[in-house]
Each structure stands twice: as C-alpha cells, then as structure tokens.
Amino acid sequence: MQSHHNDMMHPDTLAILGRIRALTDRYPGTTTLGEVSSQDGAFNRVRRYTAGEERLHMAYTLRPLRGGFDQATVNGLIEAAAADASTPGWPCWSFSNHDVERAASRWKPPGAQDGDPRFVRLLAMLLLSLRGSVCLYQGEELGLPEAELLLQDVRDPFGLTYWPEFRGRDGSRTPMPWAFAQPNAGFSEARPWLPVPEVHRALAVDRQEADPASLLQMWRRAIGLRRACPALMRGTQRQLDLPAPVVGLVREHGRQSILVLFNLSAEPARLRIPELGGATVLPDVAGLGAWIEVEEGEAVAMLPPFGTLMATVDPALVPVLVPARSLELQTG
Length: 332
Fold this sequence. Notes:
By secondary structure, the chain is an alpha+beta fold. Helix content is about 25%, strand content about 20%. The chain has a 5-stranded antiparallel beta sheet. A 4-stranded antiparallel beta sheet has the order 10-11-8-13, with no helix packed on it. Helix 2 links the parallel strand 1 (about 35) and strand 2.
C-alpha cells in the first residue's frame, strides 16, 4: 500500500548508485548487491542498475519469488537472465528470502509433494545454471520446508495483524538447525525468538554432513561443478524453445558450450535431440540419473521425474541446436 515514486522508482536512483559504486571502488575486494522490487519492469531495472563500471556489481529482484512455478515461469526466468546487447548488466538470483514462503513449499509443480527431494534438487540445479550470481537463503541448502507455526509462536507484526488469512512471514524465519540432538537444534542454548520445527531438526546440518547423498552434500558438488565450468560461471545464455514440461538453455564461454535440460514434471520424459549425438554428459551431481541414449542413430535425452541433464556440446552445433517444434517428446 505504499507509493514508491520517491524511493525505488525515483529517476535519480542511477546517480545514487554511481556514488555508491565510486565509494566502494576505493576499497579493493568489496562488492555491491542491490535488491530490486517486484514492480513491472523489474528485470530491466536489474540490467540498468548493474550495467557498466559506474553501477552496482549485481542486483536481484523479488519478482521470481512472487509467482508460481511452471514452464512459462521458468522460461521467463531464463529469458530475463539472458544478456541484452545494449545493457548487459549482471543479475543475481534468489529463490527464497525472509519475506516469502520457502521455495520447497511455495513452488509445487503437478505431482510434486511439499519438500519433494527431487524437486528441491531441480531447483538447486536451475539456480546454479542461470547467468548471474546466486544468493542462497539460510536453510535452502538443507531443503527446509515452510515451518507451520501456532499463533502463540508468531512474532511477525503482519502475521499477528492479519491472522489467519495471512499467517505472516515467520515460517521462513525459524532458526537454522545445526545439530539434531542438541537443544534448539544447536542454534542457541537460550530459547530462540521462534521455535525449531521437528521436521527441520530431522534435516539438521550434522545429519546431512554425515550423509554423502544428502541435499547439503549435493549443493557442494553442484557449486564445485559450476566453479569448474567457465560457461556456467561467466558465459552468455540462450533460451531453447522446447515442448512442455521440459525447459532448456545453452551457456557459452570461449570454446565451452553447455546444454542444460530440466524436466518440470513428476513423470519421466524422453526428448529426441539429434545434435546431442556428440555431447558429453557432465557428472550427475544432483543424483537424478538423467542420461543420453542413441536410438536409430539419433540421440535421446532421458529425463527422470524432475531430472536435470547437463552436457557439453560441440560449439559448432550451438547455432542450430534444437530446432523448435521439430522435437519428439514422450512422457510417462
């Protein structure tokens, strides 16, 4: 219910950002990160606010956190992350923060259950595949679902005012569960401002540290893979026109081209892509078991439910990769 003409939407914003950048440039090793509101034109503002050496280093917008999750939404994110020739900028991406329901509970494609480990892993791979930097919200690396709180536990003024129509934002603000067996899950010896749900205790850091197949360990492997691939770290990005429920993109840097496919369905999908014949599948850090088969001389991407496939492809094929509407997709 606020009018933002004199703050985030003010025409003098760019000049102020220039002053901030000039100050931080006097201190080597510092970086600037902006949060852009979700009003219309948010992604364009991210580009403007981060374009050139006199603006912020990076910025993210709350826009992706306000909508649902389907092929159209993900394609919109991929398109928004692509470089623009006139104002390339450098986006930052976040799927969760302290003002919205946790992504593991907020986004539920058809067939996905609350906190579905396969879907949570797909979200991680998507976040790490987009062009730009990444913000990882506390507990997201553990796959924490939204906490279900009683009214007497709520501290958020919005939740207290509008309960039960709006239950507040405290469901994403509960303490980080560090240790399964310790009081308050190791967050504090004193009573914290919000309780630790038992479902979060079961996902505590010490438990996931000891499990090589845990989501926490998967995040570490995925970040390591991203750091090892210049195309994923710094490359350009091109969106692919694919039939639902699959979305895809190509990241390119120098002589490295990486194709990434996402199956947004709880059903397995087979995607026939002839150009994948010479592809090399990258390590399956998500543990979802996607692979490529050759059938009748043509390559077929085999995507399990919520599966992600990363593969290096011949850069010479990238300009013609995946001719839209000529693909054969089978599900189930």
